[in-house]
Amino acid sequence: MFIDIQFDEDWKQDFQHRLHQEGPWASFELYQLAYQAACEQLVPSFTGLKAPEHLYHIQPYDYQLETARRVVEEMNGKAILADEVGLGKTIEAGLILKEYMIRGLVKKALILAPASLVNQWSRELNQTFSIPAVVQRKAPVWEHADVAIASLDTAKRPPHNEIIQSIDYDCLIIDEAHKLKNDQTKNAAFVRSLQKKFCLLLTATPVQNRIEELYHLITILKPGWLGTKADFKKRYESGGDVQRLIHQVMIRNRRDETPVNWTKRNVINQTVTLSEEEEHLYESLCTLAEHAALPGFSRTLLKRELASSKEAAFLTLKEMDLPAEGLNAVFKKMQACSRNSKAEALLEFVQQEDEKVLVFTEYRATQLYLQWFLKQHGIPSVPYRGGFKRGKKDWMMQLFQGKVPVMIATEAGGEGLNLQFCHRLVNYDLPWNPMRLEQRIGRLHRHGQTKDVKVLNLAAEATIEADILARLQQKIGMFENVIGRIDAILGQSEDTKEQSYGR
Amino acid sequence: MDDKAMLNFSESLLTTCGAKVIDRTHQTITVQLTEDLDKALMNRPFYWHYIEKTNGIKQPKTLTLTTDTEAKADAHLHQGSPRLHQLFRYAKSQGAWTCLYDQAPAGKQPEPLEPWLNVNVTISKFNGLREDTPLSIGLHLISGARVEGFMDNVTERSFSLAPSAYTYPVRPLITPTAALRRIELFITETLSHKPKGWAEEAIIKKEAELSLLDQFFQDTPDDPTYQNERRAIEERLQPKISVQVINGGLFYLPKSILHHFQA
User: Does the record carry Hydrolase as a key word (chain A) (predicted)?
Assistant: First the structure.
């Protein structure tokens, strides 16, 4: 068998040049020191990790070291790191990157992370791993920085995109990779166009709604690994060995398998019975939507909003072109409706727990309403949402950590929040995607949480929220079937017990 | 390298290159850098540019290195410390070529010193991962005799850049260029007899990955992703060996050393 051997020509040429010129030569001391330095930097074996001894500030957990070892030795540096939230996927990715850099196999690396996490990556790589990583801001740094960090949004825009596409990256790391779940998006197309030898996709939620999402992620990682999409679907639906294939390119550590002491997570689903007037209101809205022949999407939206608060539904209804007669009937019922049973349930929970409570809602109007409603009962609260500036977000966080007992956040506020000091969470209304619930819970139930966490999921009885709850259970079932078990997201309330974990 | 070795290495390197020790405890060292060291290590090109343009007074910095995790210093030395690796790189760049004469104690008669070519190399095998083996070879430029472990054998001796008064160098019969060729041939020959399991495994992996890829893109062979991925797999898994010279040079040694090596 022929193996190509490359000899170092540069040294030879320089040596001959120096022989000719009779110097300059190194002293024996320097010559020995050079030899010693080189021996110190050797990679003594194909196997084993050299990165851990290079770390100064942290001692990684065994499961993190084992993950890094498997990715490097067994998976050829292409993997989905799918640990549950809070287990330190960044540390694992840093270990792998560092290992390849020490081994001289990676020089140019690109890290794509959500904008809110870019600085955190930079700190982690520079401080913990002594990897000189540069954050892309305005002027392009791609060519002179060997390790660059950027948000996907920055990277895919000109002039950056073309520069990045022209660079032969040794390693590509994508954080929160579930954002690439849809292969039709610009993000996914951009990532597919990048050149990469090694690739790490980080996500706690490789499947959110549909099994195809996982297919798309793996196809970015290793095109062809799962065959064509049609092959894969057929195989999955006929109960083929997709798990085995998936677990060869994915590692998922679970909290309860780690030596870290995790506090418990208690999840309760509370089905709230609506008052008579609320029921009438809901029915009248359903009738209106039916008569006006609204598209399914709008219909669902309105029902979900109304199940949240009439304020949320009102704002949408106002914008819609609907027959005045039906609309007025609904508005009249809205005026007549003086109660919000879910808000009352929330109030009861807040009063009874006598602890800090983080409330998530899907709608801004509900967010405002809940603030007002709680205030009526003498409970102050702070809002939190994605649109806030960094400084305002920090200020809201500080207030909540201080004396304000309730924070009401919208979905976009969820990312990057660290609220270990809080132990109570209420999902005031439910998203379709169970992994978004997991991400929300992860804001509290993460590294550094010292107490058990209680989660309350509210659902209005006999409304669309009951359907959502059932769908959530189904999706969790699929996730567990393909990816592996998952910590409780939904509780086991009366109505959902039968379907829960049903596969 | 343990803490002590790291500190000793740094001290030897810096003082060999002309730095003056200002303060030294068992965990910390502070040195006054020379201009060259400052330029090489401290990363302040604008300062030096400015000083040289304005003919200002050159003030090289001091550098404090420590292995004490609590202490304040310019750099904490540990296995992965960027400063330590910078010093490694600097040492390698400064100590790559040499021509040295043995400093045997003066005898009664002038003693001939015979030329050797020493080359220290790192042999790196790549198969998606990497493994290095160091090799220190000496070739006697009179007889063509070859020894391994050359550095270990000369490390206790003392050398200088010019022959001492009671010695005289003998001219090589084999030119350094020819000797280098012989060493390369020897390495190629040796490697061809070593086990190749590491490379065969990589080839199998590579073929498997390529075949999955080919199938996947069989209907769209012009997809740029296909070409990118194909090249990446080739680069990652095609086994290869690289031989990097760490350093090398001519050593003039007493005649007796040949027997010593062969013993």
Answer: yes
Please enumerate in sequence order all residues whose Cβ is within 8 A of that of A483, keeping only pairs 6 or more positions apart, or say none.
A82, A206, A207, A214, A246, A250, A252
CA angle A255/A261/A263 to nearest 5° reads: 80
Test A46 with B243 for CB contact under 8 angstroms: no
ipTM of the complex: 0.95
Q: For A336-373, write each residue's pLDDT tens digit.
A: 888 899 999 999 999 998 899 999 999 999 999 999 99
What integer pLDDT is reported at residue A496 of this predicted model?
38
Q: Would you give the end-to-end CA distance of chain A in angstroms?
A: 52
| Angle formed at CA A279 by CA A275 and CA A280, multiple of 5 degrees | 120
Our CA-based measurement puts residue A42 at a distance from the nearest CA of chain B, in whole angstroms, of: 6
In chain B, domain spans = 3-94, 97-195+241-262
Do residue A397 and residue A324 come from a single domain?
A: no
Q: Å from A487 to nearest chain B CA?
A: 35
Extract the tokens encoding A492. Answer: 């086991």
Q: What is the count of structural domains for chain A?
A: 3
B204: chain A residues, CB-CB within 8 Å: none
Per residue in A292-349, pLDDT (tens digit) is 888 888 889 999 999 999 999 998 888 887 888 888 888 888 888 888 999 999 999 9
Tell me which of B77, B97, B139, B151 to substitute to probe the interface with A (most A C-beta atoms closer than 10 Å): B97
